Structures are given as structure tokens and as C-alpha cells.
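Amino acids appear as letters; backbone shape is given numerically. Here is one record.
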Amino acid sequence: MELIDGNAVASELLEELSKKVASFQNHKPCVAFVRVGEDAASVSYVRKKEKTASKVGIESRLLIFPETITEDQLLKEISYLNQDSDVHGILVQAPLPPHMDDHKIFNHVLPEKDVDGFNATNLGLLCQENQDAFASCTPAGILELLKRTEVDITGKHVVVLGRSLIVGKPVGLLLLQKGQPGNATVTYCHSRTPDLANHTRQADILIAAIGRPLFVGRSMVKQGAIVLDVGINRIPDNTRKSGFRLVGDVNFEEVAPLTSFITPVPGGVGPMTVAMLMRNTVKAYEKSLQAGMTP
């Protein structure tokens, strides 16, 4: 069993991006973070993204709105950012309040500034294998981990456990694409899949993104499989000062001895999500230069 160190790979990628950003003349890439409400996890995630952007040399703006903001008001705020040529990327932090339509909000971000990859246009371009598309950061991070670990995906049977628009669906599309990394055979499984373990045991590469703590156990994984755990779940732990600990969707202690490669939680896929957001922001900046949009 070999551990895939997401922290190390993310640090390597961020160092590459830092050098690229340092080479830019005059203006620097700028990303705007939009946060609605005071959800503790959202506050923490956005703070981490701000710190990482600063480390890379990317400028950031943080816009915080009360949970009572109306959908129309938030759409107007996003429109201002769409029109601002100094802003190259826009990230609307999820989750949004219940009174808002997530898809409507994400689709309002201009595709060329959609560094989170949630806009319908970017998802469509991803289906077409268009290299101009912004891929969702977590799926893109998974592929980067496999690439830098030198895992040959061609012909491998990948089972994706989860079907969300944020992770499950786009990661399958990326793995299906022609070329490297890609050319995999992909099976999607989810909460309504009967005899789930029968499917997951066939996986050469298992991607767990179902959002259920410690769900994937020993009986669900075949010997020698590669397991990538996307889950980040808090479970009670009285031995910790915080009163909880973070675990993935995979029962690491049970599954790790069976695998050839596995990502831990934390320190696996998570750091790659933020790193790929920075890469998408730099990509958006470079595209704006080509289009003559950045002053």
C-alpha cells in the first residue's frame, strides 16, 4: 500500500503556479470569493482559499452577504463582478441558503470567470472534451493526483461512488475523455444502486464521493485497487479538544491494507481542490489576456 500525499502534490503545483504568477507583468490574477451567511465550514474554507491565493501571488476579494440577502440581490452582485475587468475568477461558496436556486446562481457567473467549473456552459464543454472548459476543482484535482502518481488510467475500470454535479458526474467525464489521463471505463454508482458492493469490488480505481462517513469498508474493495476518498465528514471524538475528528467516506484502517494506492483524509484529495482553484484562476487570467479583457 502506498499513500498518495495530496499535501505534497498540491505544494508542488502551487510552487509552479507561484513562479508563473511572478512572471506576469503589471496586473496579477484576481479571484473574488462570494460568501453568503456565516456557516462555520464555509468561513473556514474561504479563509483557506484566501491564504492560498496570497501565497501564490493571486489577488483576492471577499464579499460577504447576510443569509437574508435575496436571490435577485445576489445575482446583481455577481453581475457587478462579471462586468469588472479586474476580476478574472468568481467563486460562490456553497452551500447557499435554502431560498436560493444553486443552479441559477452558479449559471449566472460568466463561463470565462467560472473558476469553480459549476456553470452549465463549462459542464457542456467538458462533455465535448473542450480544453477551454473549466473543470470542477475536486475532479480536476483527482486527475492531477493520478497523473503525478504516474497511474496509467487507460483501460482501467473506474467506479465512481456518487453522482453530484460537483464531483461524481464531472470526474467520470474527465476519466472517460480520450487521451491521458483518461480512456477509462467508468461505472457510476449511488444510493439507489442495488448490490453496491458487487460493483465497487470490480473497481481498479474506486472514487468515493457519497458523503457518508466510513461507508466504504473492506468487503467493498478488491485487492490491489486504487482508492481515492473525496469525503470530508466530522464525527464525534471525545479524545479531541474540538470534540470531533475528520474522516472520509472510506474506512481507512480496514481498506488501506488491500490497496495499491490510497488517499488519506485529511491530506489527500482536499488540498488538491484548493490548488486546482488557483490553477483555474491563472488560466482565466491568461485567457482574459488573450481576449484583451485585462487592462
Q: What stands out?
A: The radius of gyration is 19 Å. The first helix runs from residue 6 to 23. DSSP finds ten helices and eleven strands in the chain. The chain has two domains: 26-111, 137-270.
